[in-house]
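1st attempt posting a full record on here, be nice pls
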Amino acid sequence: MPENKAFFDAIRSGDFAAVKSLIAADASLASARNDSGVSGLLAAVYMGRSEIRDFLIASGAVLELPEAAAVGNLARARELIEKNLAQPNTFSPDGFPVVAFAAEFQPHCAAPRT
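the predicted structure (as tokens):
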């Protein structure tokens, strides 16, 4: 699927115009996952591409628990956890502990270090 590769390449390089163009051509890319199962949204978070992250959210990217925690959408995280209380003990497709996403990517949610 060449669009998927082009989409993740655009995220990786920070090419916001290309991401917008690809989403305009195929809205399902907003929730696309790479070969490892990592969403475009998480890829944007990992790479510090906040403009792309925000655009993907606005474009309807599906927020599973890793994405919800990484972007600080606590309402969505709570909704998913209430459906499955074991979810906070799971891992993202690339092996990152889901429970740590909020602390890693949303530092204002983490407890202060003493």
